[in-house]
Amino acid sequence: MAPATLLKYHAQDGPAEEYTHVKTESFHNANTPASPNARKARHTNVAGTDNSKDEELKSPWILHPSLVLKEDVLQKWGKGEGEIPDPDEVLDLKEERKGWHGYVEWELYPERKARVKEWMKGFDFPSAPEFQFVPLPKTNPILEGVRWKQYHYALGKATKDIPAESWLWVQKEKSPDMIHILQFPYNGEPPRDRLVSTALTTNEDHFVRNHGGIPEIDEDEYFLDIGGLVNEPKRITMAMLKDEKLFPRQSNIVTIQCSGTRRIEQIHQYPGDGDELINAPWGEGAIGTARWTGVSLKKVIKYCGGLKYPDKPMHLEFLGADTYFKQGEVYNYAVSVPWRKVKANEVLLAWEMNGQPLPKIHGFPLRTVVFGYIGARSCKWLTRINVLDAPSEGPVQKKEYLYYNSQVGKHNVTYSAGFSIQDMLVSSAIMSPVDADQIIHDGKIKMRGWAYSGGGHWPVRVEVSNDGGSVWYEVPHEQMSEKYFYAWRVWEYDLPVDAEGWLELVVRCWDNSMNTQPTFVRSAWNWDLHVTSSCHRIKVFSINRSRPKTAAKLKMYEESGIPFFPITKPSAVPLESDERYAIEMAARGGRDPLE
Ligand SMILES: Nc1nc2c(c(=O)[nH]1)N[C@H]1C(S)=C(S)[C@@H](COP(=O)(O)O)O[C@H]1N2
Ligand SMILES: [Mo]
After folding, report:
1. SS3 172
2. What is the mean pLDDT of the chain?
């Protein structure tokens, strides 16, 4: 079959500006070397170069910003101008365990958290960048996360190299052409076209969503503590988890989707809350599908003698090794899911992703994978599971990932007023063509995309429209990938297109419960800009070469060697010859009526 789309011009192509990073400045003085660990990281640079000091300063993954202290703090600490107290003396932070680099435990030490809260008050951290009322920078990374780098830097040796080291893992483990939405904490999605070229996403292309740094954990030193309202609290090693005499293996194809997927559409129409991490400006790629292997959490809870109150609305809280800063305080990443989700064998403790050990960036050595739920609950770098009689009090569970009514905003928003997003709703996206493409075709345009529904639902029907959503064509089931209880389906379709000019292409999915998608972004807009589940719409400029006049015009451009694209480039040739004009006007009976 000939390709339906003959030629495409991407309006979004164009030179990205060189990304300029924050210049290195050591905490105490410019000559202090970074910690041995960061130094080692530099020498295993992807480029393999032996970095001189100058090279180090230029290297894009040295991410040590300068810090600004507040005046009253200088006085309080008895320091002179420009002198910064040593965080290692004041805070004395240490990594929690041998073999767990990048892990500082916060939740078990309330007094440590309190000390950091006081310390953080001493700095003038930059505020969040405005990225909603202005166009996004054409850089890659798009946003930097300067203040998050500074937060880590401000706490001294236990955390200051984490931004640099995490960026190194991005380079090592992710595809070189990822779209870096936020450099640190790292958030990135793959190129659109490639994401839907296979039903299973490669580990290199799977999107990444981080709230903090990437810990490096030695599998042999790894263990997981299970406690709280469980009958027999236990410490479990990887060797125990992998022992099939103790726990049967479970393997499932599961889609993980961040509830920020397609947020950029909401931002473009109606800006909302503007934290560059919490509300990162995702495109359609914050979704991926992998075969995850591990053991069902239900079996592990059984091994711990079961829950103390299995009939109460219990939650299982997952804690991660990474540090999360929120409003001047520190936390370990923490989220929870209800016990009934675990009971259904829909929560996996996974150590394998597509038959490979988990990449570091995806949670090595162990993460949860919560089927059909928002990605946030699939906790990476798992340190503990706490059985609670209520949802986690961690900020990610309690204060984020909330879905508000559209009239709620900064003036009246409250945490309790939002839905806590758990099951992902039915959604879809067109991944090719992309918005503003100018397409030469012979009456059909090839479309490709994904369709997904959470909560154990699956896409049954995908429909596309070439007229903004009045006429819908069904994508034949043969052109959709296999169905699974917990995964997306990728699809492709040669959409009949007769009309020329700007058209609005639309997709919508129907799941097995006959749920479908809201019509417009506005129909489901919400203050925190979550789950952009409305029909996905793109504008494309159609040039239908099966029309003889269009074909002739295109030929003329080709023969004269004048580029046709972009369509907005003013034409250097007359639209019509004088001879032709005279013939056409005569045929129309001239411009004006005779009487
Ligand atoms: N420990 C930890 N787990 C985490 C996160 C995190 O920042 N820290 N991010 C969550 C969010 S919001 C999402 S969408 C998924 C993304 O998983 P991935 O990065 O493997 O694609 O991880 C979740 N698990
Ligand atoms: Mo997420």
Report:
1. helix
2. 90
Identify whether 433 is preceded by a cis peptide bond (ω within 30 of 0): yes
CATH 2.60.40.650 matches 427-516+534-595: yes
Residue type, 550: T
Average pLDDT rounded to a whole number, residues 452-464: 98
Ligand 1 mutation pick, 179, 201, 211, 377, max ligand atoms within 8 A of CB: 211
Helix (H) or strand (E) holding 92: none
Asked whether 291 and 547 are in contact (CB, 8 A), the reply is no
Q: What is the CATH number of domain 217-263+285-420?
A: 3.90.420.10
CA-based torsion, 207, 209, 212, 217: positive or negative: negative
* Residue 402 backbone dihedrals phi, psi, to 5 degrees: -110, 145
The pLDDT tens digits for 181-234 are: 999 999 999 999 999 999 999 999 999 999 999 999 999 999 999 999 999 999
Q: What is the position in ligand 1's atom list of the atom closest to the CA of 207?
A: 21
Quote the Cα angle for 375-475-202, to 5°: 40
Q: What is the pLDDT of residues 320-349, one digit of tens each?
A: 999 999 999 999 999 999 999 999 999 999
- Ligand 1 atom 18, closest CA: 208
Residue 398 pLDDT grade (very low, low, confident, very high; cuts 50, 70, 90): very high
Residue 21 has pLDDT above 50, yes or no: no
Measured CA to CA, the distance from residue 412 to residue 230 in angstroms comes to: 39
Q: Which ligand is nearest to the CA of 203?
A: 1
pTM here is 0.91
Domain boundaries, the chain: 36-196, 217-263+285-420, 427-516+534-595
